[in-house]
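Batch job 17 of 40 flagged for manual review because the log was empty.
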Amino acid sequence: MKLNDWLGVLSGLALFLYGMSLMSESLEQLAVKRLKVILETLTKHRWQAILIGVIVTCILQSSSAMTILLIGFVNVKLMRLENAIWVIMGANIGTTITGQIVALDIGMIAPILAMVGVILTLVCHRKMYCHMGYVCIGLGFLFIGLDMMSISFLPLNDSQIFINFLDFFSNPFFAVIFAMIFTAIIQSSSASIAILQGLCAQGLIPFSQAVYFIFGFDIGTCVTAFLASVTGCLNAKRLALFHLLMNIIGMFIFIGLCMFTPLVGYIEILTQEPMRQIANMHTFYNIATTLIILLFDKYLIQLIYILIPNNGKIS
């Protein structure tokens, strides 16, 4: 790849991340008053809390934003730790909607979306319409950035260095570790998934290898929760630890399933589109992990209390 290609990848990633951030912040502004009421009052029962986590994260388009909100609520004692844990389990499912949206491949109308958003923000003076405009701009930038990255990845088809690089990650655990570090750096599992979808769409990474990167992405995004909980109370730290342990457990289970069962083949059969295959695997992985964790969540909660004891401090 030439310098221009690398600049194209970086520019595309910057546009994608900015679009995600703009869309997430604008959606949050549209629903912020209702979100507080919903998270405070409608999360007292396990399944209800999980469903709220799914829906709110789909609205916010960011599990990181949802995690920060939850840590904030736990920190000021507006929500019990157990309730927040159930919501964060739902958030893990809700965050997969971004991959499904990206798989729609509506890049052709991305400039139209961005223009509609610009017109709304310039013409309309009501805050609600302005925020809706910013949502359209963010969505447009997201797909424009994705297209820029996909085009810039094309020269990698002929790069022997890149092919050798991918051979190194044929080991599932190396792939997971790399994906985890990469997502921790860019602070967005949605962006990581989108990049992976772009690489798979160009035929640069086979689906059978790409699945292991997905597991690492979900672990890497836990860094956001840890950073948000650094100055928080003990329960805020416990929530961040639960989020990490849940994803680590899911990762080990699914590495085993992918290596020793025909799971990858079953997901591949559902559709021939590489981007959709990645999105479907990400969704299935997070739903299944949540259901598995629910079987012994009480014991996992007991474990985080052991790992982060009170020691006379206020939770």
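Reviewer: the log was empty due to a logging misconfiguration, but the result itself is present. The CA atoms of residues 246 and 293 lie 7 Å apart. Unflagging and moving on to job 18.
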